[in-house]
Specification:
By secondary structure, the protein is mainly beta. 0% of the residues lie in helices and 42% in strands. It is built from no helices and 11 strands. The chain has strands at 6-14, 20-22, 27-31, 36-38, 41-43, 50-57, 60-68, 74-75, 83-85, 96-98, 107-112. The strands form 3 sheets. A 6-stranded mixed β-sheet has the order 3-1-11-6-7-8, with no helix packed on it. Strand 6 (50-57) and strand 7 (60-68) form a beta hairpin. The radius of gyration is 16 Å and the shape is globular.
Length: 128
């Protein structure tokens, strides 16, 4: 008998009031080494939406990837190997698929119709 570590994955939602993003499955229990897909459904008046996926680490969102109708999108280097999402404008969904789950993948993941992370500049501040 084999016992596999289970990963706990949770989901949050991010969008503006006139738009709607839903992640119907809040908590997912999955087996390490297997793939899983997290669902993200959206409503927007935009004919060409941009969808973003984030991972929360230490209560801070980490940008993972962006999908839109104009380009192949963008994926942060650390997530390119095992994380992917495909924007389905007709079905109004952008599911996130994680391949070969690792214990370090246990986190809260959320999708958004707007960027929720801005650049953070670190370094000395100078008075003018």
């Amino acid at each position: 008998m084999f016992l596999y570590p289970l990963l706990f994955i949770s989901a949050l939602v991010g969008c503006r009031a006139e738009e709607n993003v839903r992640q119907p499955t809040e908590d997912v229990m999955v087996v390490e080494g297997h793939p899983t897909t997290l669902t993200c459904l959206f409503d927007t008046t935009s004919p060409s939406p941009y969808l973003f996926w984030y991972k929360l680490a230490n209560d801070k969102p980490i940008f993972m990837l962006r999908r839109d109708t104009f380009s192949p999108g963008e994926t942060t280097t650390e997530f390119k190997d095992r994380f992917d999402a495909h924007l389905n404008v007709t079905g109004k969904s952008v599911p996130l698929t994680i391949q070969r789950l690792q214990l370090s993948d246990s986190a809260v993941y959320y999708c958004a119709l707007r960027p929720t992370v801005t650049k953070v500049y670190s370094g000395p501040l100078q008075k003018l």
